[in-house]
Amino acid sequence: MKEKGILIVVSGFSGAGKGTIMKELLKKYEETYALSVSATTRTPRPGEQEGREYFFRSVEEFEKMIAKEELIEYAKYVDNYYGTPRTYVEEQLEAGKDVILEIEIQGALKVKEAFPETLLLFVTPPTAEELRSRLTGRGTESAEVIEGRMKRAAEEAEFMDRYDYLIINDVLDECVEEMHQIIQGEHRRGFRNTAFMEHMKEELKGE
How buried is residue 188: exposed, middle or buried, by Cβ count under 10 Å (0-12/13-18/19+)? Predict the structure, then answer.
């Protein structure tokens, strides 16, 4: 019996290193995981490819997807829509891949509502000071933007306890391994194995 994949949502503060962890995890265990590709109405940036970074759609196309319930979750940020296409996710799960969605808290909680078996992981640096230094270290944002991100992190921190696991990103390699172990352990959870348990009970009755 082929084991179905698990849907995993990864959220975290801006600057916590989610993207880097995802890249490493997918590189190390590419047969195991699939990173879900979001649909968006924003214009592609140089070097971005359709179906790799995003599925690029017009506002009209995106609103049709909403109307037809083709998205697991969606949100609007700064005049652009972002959302998770349902078909892609369901196909990957059926194929036995664990599907990772890297999305905001608001979207994460919507996914959990739609798919109660979703595993929610929250990525955070070890300290607030470390978060600030990572944001500053990027050298791409103004002091004003950094302040905005820190303020937003304070608001997001209120939702940390809604997640199943907290991943503290201190040493990257250790963090990637920890995330992999958590997800693999999750496959053994009782509620994910009801079919197996029923089958086992039936077999034992026949012994």
Answer: exposed
> 7-36+99-205 belongs to which CATH class?
alpha beta
Rg for the chain (alpha carbons), in Å?
19
- From first CA to last CA, the distance across the chain in angstroms is 21
Distance CA 171, CA 179 (A): 12
Q: Tell me how far apart the alpha carbons of residues 111 and 122 are, in angstroms, rounded to a whole number.
A: 14
pLDDT tens string 66-91: 999 999 999 888 789 999 999 989 99
Q: What's the pLDDT at 163?
A: 97
Q: Is residue 2 predicted with pLDDT exceeding 70? A: no
Per-residue buried b or exposed e for 46-82, using 16+ beta carbons within 10 Å of the residue's own CB:
eeeeeeeebbbbeeeebeebeeeebbbbbeeeeeebb
Query: How far is Cα of residue 195 from the mean position of the Cα atoms in its chain?
Result: 26
Range of weakest confidence among 37-51, 130-144, 168-182: 130-144
**Sequence ranges of the domains in the chain:** 7-36+99-205
Token code pair at residue 136: 């500053």
User: What CA–CA distance (Å, rounded) separates 10 from 117?
Assistant: 14
Full-model pTM: 0.86
User: Both tokens of residue 196?
Assistant: 């197996």
Average pLDDT over residues 15-30: 92
Per the structure block, which two tokens stand in for 110?
């919507």
